[in-house]
Amino acid sequence: MKTKQKNQNPQFSTLNSQFLRRYPAEWENQCATWLSWPHNEKEWGKERLQRIRGFYIELINKILQFQDVNLIFANEALLEEVSSDKQFVKAIHELPQRLKKIILPNNDIWIRDYGPFFMETCRGRVTLPLLIDFEFNAWGGKFPPWDLDNNIPKEIAFSLEYEIESYPIIMEGGSLEFSGDGLILTTEQCLLNKNRNSTLSKTNIENILKSAFNIEEIIWLKQGLEGDHTDGHIDDVARFISPRKILICKSNDKKDGNYEHLNESIEYLKKWTHSKKGYKLEVIELPMPDRMEIKNERLPNSYANFIFVNGGVIIPTFNCPSDKTALEIFKKVFPDRKVTEIDCSLLIQEGGGLHCMTKQEPLI
What is the CB neighbour count within 10 angstroms for residue 165? Predict the structure, then answer.
């Protein structure tokens, strides 16, 4: 078990007299970003797979400007292939941060949703890592197989020699947003969907999340973006950027299927007040990028699906005029961070974004 001595975090609240825990916010210091190397040639085809891998190389290079990357490979053959790839080796050559390659069998790239939740626990002045593991069923059984992905949290815990707690309910990483000091933001469309936990009520789910994460209160929005196969993940809609500040997508087009519910969510969050502490939230609006479709089906492209890295944020762009407006907003709300962009027009065609394909490991 790896441990690190540090002062007890004042944001810890008591789960019981013996044990304290907290899910660090994504803007806090990170140890590494986890990624899963794409390998499903049967699904994507050889040419498309190579393009997706090219995107990965570009993203890995950008992340390594800020912090380490832990890159998962499904098998030894994939690892050997990448290690001999001149394009890959050149992209990461002589960077100060470290790329760690790990072999863990997996099905798909969306580690945000099937990967573990990295918690910190505190006993006295000793801070310890703890992984939280939920069941994963590929967004309501839509995209089999998922058996290997479902096992990834336990494999990572074994690899890192971290303790792990497993909960026998379906829960995906992209469906929960954390304030870092006692709040979760989520959607009813996803968490109450009968293709996940059909026997659990809203109260049941709230009680499980409050216990697992030591959370005071859960903020429920109605739904996610149109065209989102995850049934409304919150990370395409709204994100905490500080304990009391939220970025949220806004549509100004009344003909847009997202117009009504996004504006309702904005008004709800502006009026929301903590039931016990009485504070309110600051709500900052993000534009929606131009509509994108593939095979006449809408894609859930969103600027909200960005990632935090140490000293920076990496923002998805989509080759449309609103990219500039979105980047200006990010630079304004993150004056002390370097704002870096990456074209996600290819990635969103796979149904997900930057946040969906990454998992942050906090520095504990």
Answer: 16
Distances from the Cα of 17 to the Cα of 10, 20, 123, 124, 125, angstroms: 15, 8, 10, 11, 14
Separation CA 31–CA 364 (nearest Å): 8
Angle (CA) 28 318 145, round 5°: 75
Side chain identity, residue 150 = N
Report the alpha-carbon distance of residue 168 to residue 160 in Å, rounded. 22
Catalytic machinery residues: 356
Type and span of the H or E element at 133: strand 126-135
Helix (H) or strand (E) holding 54: helix 46-64
Residue 169 phi, psi dihedral angles, 5° rounding: -130, 160
Could you tell me which of 229, 297, 287, 294 has the C-alpha nearest to residue 259? Answer: 287
DSSP 8-state assignment for residue 182: S
Separation of alpha carbons 173 and 110, rounded Å: 10
What values do phi and psi take at 24, rounded to 5?
A: -60, 140
Structural domain 4-362, CATH architecture: 5-stranded Propeller (3.75)
User: Which amino acid belongs to residue 62?
Assistant: K
- Residue extents of the structural domains in the chain: 4-362
Those residues whose C-beta lies under 8 Å from the C-beta of residue 247, and which sit 6 or more positions away, are 238, 239, 241, 284, 285, 286, 304, 329, 333
Query: How far, in Å, are 81, 148, 302, 306, 355 from residue 360 at the CA level?
Result: 26, 20, 19, 12, 9
- Rounded to whole angstroms, the Cα distance separating 266 from 283 reads 7
Q: Each residue of 309-319: pLDDT tens digit?
A: 999 999 999 99
pLDDT digits (tens, 9 = 90+) for 70-117: 999 999 999 999 888 877 777 666 666 789 999 999 999 999 999 999
Q: In Å, what is the CA distance from 179 to each residue of 84, 239, 245, 263?
A: 42, 9, 9, 21
